[in-house]
Specification:
single chain, 372 residues, alpha+beta, Heat Shock Protein 90, 2 domains, 10 helices, 5 strands, HATPase_C_sf, transmembrane, ATP-binding, EC 2.7.13.3
Length: 372
Amino acid sequence: MTGNRRRSRRDWVVDSLLFLAAVFGSLLLYDAGDRDPVSSGLLALDFISGMVLCFALWFRRRWPVQLAILGAIATTYSDAAGAATLILVMSVTIYKPLRATLWVFLANAVSIVIYTEVRDKPEPWGVTIGFSVAIYAAVVGWALYIRSRRQLLQTLRDRADRAETVARLQAQQAQLRAREELAREMHDVLGHRLSLLSVHAGALAYRPDASAEEVGGAAEIIRASAHQALQDLREVIGVLRAPVGELPQPTFADLPVLVEDSRRAGLPVELDFDADGPLPDHVGRTAYRIVQEGLTNALKHAPGEAVRVRVVGAPGNGLEVEVVNPAPNRRTGEGQGLLGLAERAALVEGRLEHGRTPAGDFRLAAWLPWPA
């Protein structure tokens, strides 16, 4: 503790109690030493020195070492200074390095030897020195215990603060990862919906001879897709506004519905689905997203062309997902959607591959683990 810190209410209480205890102890020691064969002048100096050191205790937080040395000097002749000096030695031990404690202890040990010569005690000097050193040693030992306990409590507080900081940082990182996941969800969900809109809008633009029934059907699909896209966007914005939350996730059971939506959009989809069993949710969502991305890309790059979707697997053997469609104008570069799918597959310890087949079709395939 340093003297630059403002004294708290607890500090005032502790300092007041120590001051009163020092005054009471000084009076007792002075009364006991009043019977020594010394001059009245030395007795008066004894009393004055003891009271001065008691008042000096109010400054022990600012100058503990200096006041403890002053106490060692005063105890060479003063009994009344003993109580305040013990408190000063204890303060040095608690607040200052151990080297300072050692020097103060040695200074007080020397003062005890000088004291036995100045006061001419009737007891043998060995008894006086031994008793005094034992008291100082007991005070220093108690102060070292208090010091170690305070250091332990401070260490625990520091650890708690660090743990709180780490937890806060981990929460922030988790939130960032959630935001990244939301970005992927926005790409997957809205990309698919908007692809359906684009296909049907393009069909209306390039088929001016379409019948009223065909125009009405396409317009109804456009309306339904736009409405669903707005609903998805509202859900995303709602999650982003909330401190904690997740976007509603599709399930593996929704995959046939996804295929049927693409068929209604005019995309011929051939589905080979043979996967029954307790598939983990995170694996099922990954399979759903892979099929969704494949259908979305087919709508963008090969509208109206037949698409083959194969989802086959069993517990213990893994799940195979494959989407194949003609892609005469498809570029070979990887888009953000395919990069995101590769990350999704890696997160569930699966594999993803894509590229052209020897027949010129585009193939998106993945193997995902399915525990037995």
